[in-house]
Amino acid sequence: MITIHHLLVSQSERVIWLMEELGLPYELKSYPRDPQTRLAHPVFRELHPIGAAPVIQDGAVTMAESLAIFSYILDLHGEGKLRVAPGAPGYADYVYWFHYANAGLMPQMMMQMALQRMAGPAGPASAMMQERFERHLKMIEARLAAAPWLAGETFTAADILLHFPFGTMRSFAPLDISAYPATRAWLARISARPAYRKAMKLAGHTHDPADPATVL
Description:
- This protein has 2 domains: 2-77, Glutaredoxin (3-Layer(aba) Sandwich); 91-193, Glutathione S-transferase Yfyf (Class Pi), Chain A, domain 2 (Up-down Bundle), CATH 1.20.1050.10.
- The protein has 8 helices and 4 strands; from the N terminus they run βαβαββαααααα.
- The protein has helices spanning 13-22, 43-47, 66-77, 91-119, 124-146, 157-166, 181-191, 194-202; strands at 2-7, 26-31, 55-58, 61-64.
- A 4-stranded mixed beta sheet has the order 2-1-3-4.
- β1 (2-7), α1 (13-22) and β2 form a beta-alpha-beta unit.
- The two termini are 31 Å apart.
């Protein structure tokens, strides 16, 4: 059985959600952040050299990194669920959006947040970074205006991965999507999924983390 080592207010909630969507059994071990620094619990350094969540254990295998964990679980236990088969309609979209959250949007959000803290929100570099970030949001909006889910007509693991920047990540990087109705509608569809609601409760949320009124 897979053990999920879950850091509260972190990406590891996505792994819980993935397992709930797949209907797979797992053991959940949750750990708080340091209340002063908000850094990961020390146990993560014992689990993996990087010392960050998420981390899973599956027998003799210990694995970190969201995309690696998702690929591992889907390949070994997914039975073709939550993905698009090579050559099937939407396959290219699935591959792109599966990697995009961690490789595209989240790094952009973190860079923007760091730059604003160092240079202030009014500097020219901050303005350039904001314009670049808005390109990301407009691209996502255009995709979700054209299809209900990132890979097309079917909900996939790509939707799970991209949700985090619009939900819990707002605790670190505030995000205003009031001008993006298709993105908001996508979040509403996700919020209605039973597996999502159960996973967020297990992850330690008392409210939907993508709700703009939620204070994380």
